[in-house]
Amino acid sequence: MLTSWIIKTFIPKNINNKRRAYGYLGGIVGITVNILLFISKLLTGIILNSIAITADAFNNLSDVGSSVITIIGFKIADKPADKDHPFGHGRGEYIAGLIISFMVLLVGFQFIKSSYGRIVNPVRLSFDLVSFLILLLSIIAKAWLGTFNRRLAKEISSGALNASSFDSFSDVIVTSTVASSLLISRFTTFPVDGYIGLVVSAFILYAGYNLVKETISPLLGEAPDPELINAILDSFKEYKEIIGTHELIVHSYGTGKYIATIHAEIPSSIPVLEAHEIIDKAENKISKKLGILLIIHMDPVNTDDGEIEKTRSEIEEILKEFPEVISFHDFRFVGQNNYKNILFDIVVSNKIRPEMEKDYVNSIKRRIKEKYPDYNAIIGLDRDYLQI
Q: What's the CATH number where 237 sits?
């Protein structure tokens, strides 16, 4: 298979930067295919004096731009961290994908315009075998290019290459419509190409809109991959001294470039230096294992006080009455005898909007007051940034 042969030939197995290699390969192959189509269509258009084929040739030349953008995007993403960008330039790939997505939308809008023009001002189409064969050649080449880029996109989970793939497939749809119209023109004078074009345009615009959403989402700060979240949380199971974790937040600075922070609960009976050694070891080992930068904040927890454990258990039962409370942590007492403050933080789902937070927390406080009239509950509210 041609795709597999190209990948094996131009991307060595032990290459250091696989992502950059795949991105560059996708861009270079795209440039090559579009330039070959441009030259063949331009020469054919000049020889046959065909304006349609000549115009389609320059359309292929403009498609070279998306491949160039792909290469530039991967080149920017590969730049190391610097003073102005301490976490690297990985999001450059997302920007490249977004630009190409807008180019897909542009194709859809242009096709609507041309299709509507054909309906309002019908043009008699005359079937020409050479023109038809050239269109078929273009369809085959673009379909292969779209499949090729989609294969590369899956290999490295690239939004930019996925956008390039759909850019090629949109050209296949447009050219297929033109080719179909040429065939149908042999049997009718009805401007079927214009009406088919409108339907196809709507499809391209809808797909382009979804493509924009997919590429812009990581730029806006989308929720982290559930598999990564579970992998991070599961990694703590091998550390028996860490009895709980909470407030995991994951930041993405490009595909495969993650910074995560988490709070880890350790019994307060463990000496500080020993606890620090445990946390430091976990940070380094989990970061290396998952290919991320993990930062752990240590929370000491009193596990030797029977009253705290009993009260914590009862508070846990009360919180079950509030379904939007996902978890609670940092539970502790302040004060003496019966007049104490109960302090803890709750993590709530995003169904609790900011303007609802105060009333929601007060409802929990009132419920706790019913159980512990002499205690004053001080509750902090945290957001769930995972939503898995």
A: 3.30.70.1350
